[in-house]
Write a structure and sequence with these properties.
about 130 residues, alpha/beta, Rossmann fold, 5 helices, 5 strands
């Protein structure tokens, strides 16, 4: 897990989060902010793409079920513009075929919402550390 002291005091990693579940989004924001992350919320896929272009975050977390377009499509669009983006997809449930599709669209990871915020933090940590 990424502890606050794993980053130099002058560096706050950035994260863009687009999650249609406002309760889950609030919990996720709180946890990442406690760990020293600068978190920016997006209401939908197009806003997530705009924030990613403007902020160059270390990680982008996308709900697969966004309101304007799917997180899958948003992920593909983000990676088409900037293949260096690290995208973690968040789904209500995860199947093997969804894992294959996440790999196809270029996501760094796919996390089941039921696994909880800790699992999401672990995946983000693994994604950042793999870079």
């Amino acid at each position: 897990m990424l502890a606050r002291d794993e980053f130099p005091h002058f560096f706050r990693p950035r994260l863009v989060l687009a999650d249609h579940n406002s309760v889950q989004a609030a919990l996720t924001c709180r946890q990442f902010r406690r760990l020293g992350w600068e978190v920016h919320l997006a209401r939908n896929g197009s806003e997530a793409r705009r924030l990613a272009r403007r902020l160059a975050p270390q990680v982008i977390i996308l709900d697969t079920d966004l309101r304007d377009e799917s997180g899958w499509l948003t992920c593909a669009k983000l990676l088409q513009k900037n293949p260096d983006n690290k995208v973690v997809l968040l789904a209500d449930r995860v199947t093997d075929s969804m894992g294959d599709f996440a790999q196809f669209v270029g996501a760094a990871a796919l996390v089941a919402r039921a696994a909880g915020v800790r699992a999401l933090v672990t995946e983000v940590s693994d994604t950042v550390n793999a870079a």
